[in-house]
């Protein structure tokens, strides 16, 4: 019997890192994929072969046939649109497409910078300069959104935006870069219950335990 061809989708992954968000997304997608595990400690991300795919020398990078995509939100946006059977993105023309895209890119462009300000104890930059306004504004905006989530950001429909925002909030609350507000905790608990996220967590936990010996 002929061997099955390798999956089209390949994730260049490191544990722990932001690429875990894309691994969760791939689990939600339900398509075959392969993982190329990189060791950040050993500097795999700075080797010439990988830099040819991602000159930033960071993870994740997704390869889908001849298509190469980097940056977490861009990868999740690409996957949701390229594999619509999973239903992880409203179609172009759907009124929900606007808020979907807003939240998909709000996390890296506003939530993450605000958390970095918090981590480094930096004073707020002028609002005319900082696209994320300031930490308190970001927390307030996300608190309002998670309070209205029913149960997800777009209502009953789970989307790639929940993967991105859910991952960001999980990380922020865990490392005390976001307050453990009841709205955040309730939303994080709902996304954490998803089987696809449980599979990603189990995979990465096993890798980390193996690395510890």
Description:
The protein has helices spanning 19-29, 48-51, 72-82, 97-120, 135-148, 160-174, 182-192, 195-212, and strands spanning 9-13, 33-37, 61-64, 67-70. It is globular and about 55 Å long. The longest helix has 24 residues, at 97-120. The mean pLDDT is 95. The protein is built from 8 helices and 4 strands, in the order E-H-E-H-E-E-H-H-H-H-H-H. Helix content is 51%, strand content 8%. It has 2 domains: 9-87 and 196-212, Glutaredoxin, CATH 3.40.30; 97-194, Glutathione S-transferase Yfyf (Class Pi), Chain A, domain 2. The protein starts with 8 loop residues before the first strand and ends with a helix. It has a 4-stranded mixed beta sheet, with helices on one face. It has 213 residues and is an alpha+beta fold. Helix 4 (97-120) packs parallel to helix 6.
